Structures are given as C-alpha cells and as structure tokens.
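quick one: 3-hydroxybutanoyl-coenzyme A bound model?
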Amino acid sequence: MEDEALLKKFQEKIDSGIKIEPKDWMPEAYRKQLIRMISQHAHSEIVGMLPEGNWVTRAPSLKRKAVLLAKIQDEAGHGLYLYSAAETLGIDRTEMLQQLLSGKAKYSSIFNYPSLTWADMGAIGWLVDGAAIMNQTMLAKGSYGPYSRAMVRICKEESFHNRQGYEIMHTLANGTPEQRAMAQDALNRWWWSAIMMLGPSDSQSPNSEQLMKWKIKLESNDQIRQRFIDRTVPQAEFLGLQIPDKDLKFNEKTGHYEHGEINWKEFFDVIAGNGPCNKKRMIDRINADKNGAWVRAAANAYAAKKAMATA
Ligand code: 3HC
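yep, here:
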C-alpha cells in the first residue's frame, strides 16, 4: 500500500498541472501505465515504417520518393525518442525490444493493414498521421514531463506527414479518372481502421479512467475520435471523395458528425494478432533485428574501446 500522504500530494500535483519528472515520487501504477503506453507508442512508430517502406522503391517520382523517405526517417526518430522517454521510467530498451519481438507487446492496430497502392501513402499521411496528431496534441499536455515534451517535437513533424499525405490525395483526386478511383479506394480501405486506431469505445477502455485521473490522457478515446471525424469529413468533401460510411451525417444541433457502427470485432481480432499483416510485420521486425545485430555489436565494441581508452 503506497503512503496515503504521498498519494494525496501526488494527486494534488497532477490536479494543479505540475509536471511529474523522472526523479519525482510516483505511484507504481502510474509508472507501469506510462511504460505500457510509451513503449507501445514507440513500437508503433517503428512498425509503422513498414507499410510505407513498401513504397520507397515504387514512388512515382524522385520528389515523392524523397518526401516519403524523410517521413519514414522521422518515424524512426519518433520511435527512438519514445524509447528514451520510456527509459526514464526505469525500463531497459533491450527489454522493450524483446517484448515487441516476442509478440508480448502491442503496437498500433493500424499498421496491420496492407499498403496496396501509391494512394495508400496519401491515405496514411492524411488519415493515420491525422488521427495521431489529434491524439498526440492531447498527450503533449499530459502530466509526465518527458512524454509530454517528446510529443511537442513529434507533433511538429506529424503535421508535415499529414500535409504531405493530404497533398498526395489532392493530386490524385484531381488527376485522371484512374487516379481518382485509386484515391477513393484508399479512403475506403483506411477510413474505418483509422478511426479504430484511436482505441476501443470508452465503455470498452479499461485504462482510460486511471489515465485520465492522472492526466496522462486528457480526453477519452471517443472524444478524440469525434474530433478526428469532425475535422476529416470536410477535408474528404473538399477532395470530392466519399467517406465509406452510409450512416455518416452532420447533426446541426450538436455540431458533430454521427457515424455508423464501428466493427469492434475486427479491431479486437487485429489487436489479438489476426489482422491482415500482423504475421508479416513481426517477421519483418524480427529479420531487421537479426540483420542489424552486427551494427549494434560494432557500435558497442567501439563504445567499449573508447571507454577503455579514456579510463
Ligand atoms: N492498437 C493496438 N492496441 C490498442 C489500440 C490500437 N489502436 N487501442 C487500444 N489498444 C489496446 C490498449 O493498449 C489496451 O491494451 P493493454 O492494456 O494490453 O495495453 C487495450 O487495447 C484497451 O485499450 P484502452 O483504451 O484501455 O487503452 P489506452 O487507454 O492505452 O488507449 C491508446 C489506447 C489511445 C492507443 C493510448 O494507449 C494512446 O494514446 N497511446 C499513445 C499513442 C499511440 O500509441 N499511438 C499509436 C499510433 S502511433 C502513430 O500513429 C505513428 C504516427 O507517426 C503515424
């Protein structure tokens, strides 16, 4: 049982908006929640490079290739940044990577879908990074110092990711009939998985209550989802593309879009490992880790040699 007085003081800090720093006292459950969330976020950034990596050699122009490469490199940086934020809580990076490679750790459901055409690069930037920005700008106001500060830098780069994705969709939607059809097909395939990536509905979200009490999360999954939908539907209309939801309608009274039933069975199937690409993503990550072992060995050997020379 944690000391009641310490818990009370901790909650007062949270309620008054004081950031919690690594060396501050914190409830074990606070530390555990943050390690769970930040490590899964980092894993998502790393695995999220795979669907886009599929299109680096297939990009339609050198310029598109350069922009896509820059985005993917950003995602790698976000992953490393977030692993560092998680390490401030006392977990070791190797342990986190082992949790991912052993299939023990989660990463975002969204990255278990295939990227089938070039338009998917647009849909991912527009919808997936768009949803991520909604969520991450909220997390940037969170109570844990290192995580909230990491979000500030990451959100700046996500904005570039989101704009370049929307620009791809705009180019295709205003291109030939085949290009327009490709953009619509990508929207059809990414829309529902993008709104699901923001987490299960609030009634099925066991972590939200505690995360919100401790201001790790400042809004619930459904609140973020609604904000994302409200912002994105007009963007699709501007492109002249149809959101694949026949029940979508704007409610003048509430000022929000109402949407159709979300297929939560699909969501829970995907996070249980049965999505279209879960197996492939894990094989790719395990192979990348194996193929990169010599780089880690060389870097560690160099660091050890340097440490000996200066000892
Ligand atoms: N994919 C996989 N698992 C998910 C999930 C998703 N989209 N949404 C929820 N889950 C899991 C949770 O991890 C939890 O399982 P666990 O207790 O075993 O960890 C369970 O489903 C119940 O969900 P909760 O709503 O209770 O969980 P949270 O309160 O943690 O909310 C979350 C889920 C909204 C994803 C929250 O964890 C979060 O905001 N995480 C940080 C942001 C993040 O991880 N984003 C991932 C995308 S990264 C990205 O998009 C990269 C960008 O560059 C494109």
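Residues 80 and 269 are 28 Å apart (CA to CA).
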